[in-house]
Design brief:
Elements (H helix, E strand, L loop, with lengths): L7 H11 L4 H19 L9 E2 L10 E9 L3 E10 L4 E10 L2 H5 L2 H18 L8 E7 L3 E5 L2 E4 L16 H11 L5 E7 L1 H12 L3 E7 L3 E7 L5 E4 L12 H8 L8 H6 L1 H17 L15 H9 L5 H34 L4 E6 L1 H5 L3 H13 L6 E5 L3 H14 L4 H4 L1
Parallel strand pairs: 2-5, 5-8, 9-12, 12-13
Antiparallel strand pairs: 1-11, 2-3, 3-4, 6-7, 9-10, 10-11
Helix pairs in contact: 2-11, 4-5, 6-14, 7-9, 9-10, 9-11, 11-13
The chain binds alpha-D-glucopyranose (GLC).
Length: 419
């Protein structure tokens, strides 16, 4: 830590050290990641939950029209997807709406009522009868302990959601109850899906050989087909990884968050938190008298603001903000690349060959220079092997994948029908 009297340049240099995540650190992180994967898969205590998705990658022959709900980021989406059965699909219609803040943090029943009301509006907007029969895939992008393809309990909220009465409950039961309250009893929930799994499945529908589904958006996480589980896709929940020790700013962010002590990796990587880390740094610099004005309320600086800062050519105080934004987002890109490398290396021991990671989320898709920083770091850390790795954008994959998994699951008899 520098003293208040030190120059701004010295202070920026010390921050550079605070936010440095280099190759040596990456090597240590990969080793720790593999240990945690191993423990999680074996059912031992681990910060990586390694949750079964109860589904495998699709064949590309799945066919039909399905609805999908996508809940878990900043926006809530409803989609109707037509699967051709020959590796192509069409998003027939899609709507998105910001989730009301009071529903994220209020009563869980209200949150599910909002979901059902949005689906209702979607059906009438599409000219579809509300008493029709529809198969639906439900993307619910939080840690869920699934007990089957259509059932699973929320372990713990992440990404600032705190709605009451949902943790520990089967979220499909909650959704179905809300659908019935809304008079949409003809909608049948065929599949419960994490967004990473949707992303991997959507890309795999179009082409073979995709190994990893990754989200780099409001939150961050990944999934992959685990050979030891006969190819069943495992949701890693890497946002919870505890093998990365952050700095004093990370600790301050965590302490003031809705879920202190949880999701420490996510808090250093994902879009929901990057602006807040930058704000905390600037706030500290202001207290040290190195930059002028105060910098606003918690979470007032978003990753969209950071995007604009990094893309522009700022002067004065913004020059410092830009330098800090670059430190924080570069560290995020390096951490994300390292976690991807860790999973690909794990898979590599199981099945050598080209490695494709399907990635969705606004950080990866939109943040200036983010993707390039990831690729460059991967190349440094993995050497020759990085040549085999391809990042592919799977835009809206999480919802599309839910429709595909609904198609797979609708072929599987429901328990009550099977007996
Ligand atoms: C959070 C959720 C996880 C999700 C990720 C990306 O980490 O816990 O389930 O996949 O965000 O949306």
């Amino acid at each position: 830590m520098s003293t208040p009297g030190s120059s701004l340049e010295d202070r920026l240099e010390s921050l550079r050290k605070d936010f440095l995540f280099d190759e040596a650190a990456a090597g240590r992180l990969v080793a720790r990641f593999h240990e945690e994967m191993r423990s999680g898969l074996a059912g031992r205590a681990s910060s990586l939950k390694m949750l079964s998705s109860f589904t495998r990658r699709p064949t590309g022959r799945e066919k039909g029209r399905f609805l999908a709900l996508d809940l878990g980021g900043t926006n809530f989406r409803v989609l109707a997807v037509e699967l051709s059965g020959d590796r192509s699909f069409e998003v027939v219609r899609a709507t998105r709406a910001a989730i009301p803040r009071e529903d994220m943090g209020g009563d869980g029943v209200a949150l599910f009522d909002f979901v059902a009301a949005s689906l209702d509006a979607f059906l009438s907007g599409s000219g579809l009868p509300r008493d029709g029969k529809y198969g639906l895939g439900f993307t619910f992008s939080f840690p869920v302990r699934q007990t089957g393809i259509r059932s699973g309990a929320l372990i713990q909220w992440t990404k600032g959601f705190t709605a009451s009465g949902v943790e520990g409950k089967d979220v499909v039961v909650l959704l179905e109850a809300a659908l019935r309250r809304r008079g949409l009893g003809g909608v049948s929930v065929e599949a419960l899906v994490n967004d990473t799994v949707g992303t991997l499945v959507a890309r795999s529908y179009e082409r073979e050989g995709c190994e990893l589904g990754v989200i780099l958006g409001t939150g961050t996480n990944a999934c992959y087909p685990e050979k030891g589980k006969d190819g069943v896709i495992v949701n890693i929940e890497w946002g919870g990884f505890a093998g990365f020790a952050g700095n004093s700013f990370d600790r301050a962010l965590d302490a003031a968050s809705a879920n202190p002590g949880s999701q420490l990796f996510e808090k250093a990587v994902s879009g929901m938190y990057l602006g807040e880390i930058v704000r905390l740094v600037l706030d500290q610099l202001a207290r040290e008298g190195l930059v002028p004005a105060p910098v606003g309320a918690p979470y007032s600086l978003t990753s969209e603001h950071l995007s604009r800062l990094v893309a522009g050519s700022p002067t004065g105080g913004d020059r410092v903000a830009r330098a800090v934004a670059e430190l924080v987002t570069t560290r995020s890109a390096h951490l994300a690349a390292t976690a991807i490398a860790a999973v690909l290396l794990w898979r590599g021991e199981q099945a050598p060959g080209e490695r494709v990671a399907a990635i969705d989320g606004s950080l990866f898709e939109k943040f200036p220079g983010y993707r390039e920083a990831m690729s460059a770091f991967l190349a440094q850390g993995m050497g020759e092997r990085a040549r085999e790795v391809r990042f592919e954008l799977a835009h809206d994959g999480s919802g599309i994948g839910a429709a595909i998994i609904a198609a797979i699951a609708s072929e599987v008899p429901r328990k009550s029908e099977a007996t």
